[in-house]
Design a protein that fits this description.
66 residues; mainly alpha; 3 helices
């Protein structure tokens, strides 16, 4: 993946992470749709892993570039 594509991917993941956090922030989703809340929690965890891996790759590309 190119540096530019990787940067866009990280940005997209971070936007998704913010959206998930907003949905879970007030706690009402846990009461109204616990299954959906759990799905969002799981996706949030997956995003953390994806962002971490993408950031590592980004750093590798930066080192090669520099």
């Amino acid at each position: 993946m190119s540096w530019k594509k990787l940067t866009k991917r990280i940005e997209a993941l971070e936007r998704e992470q913010i959206d998930i956090a907003a949905h879970l922030a007030d706690g009402t989703l846990y009461r109204s749709d616990a299954r959906r809340a759990k799905q969002l929690q799981t996706r949030g965890e997956e995003i953390e892993t994806e962002v971490f891996a993408a950031m590592q790759r980004w750093e590798e590309l930066e080192l090669r570039k520099g």
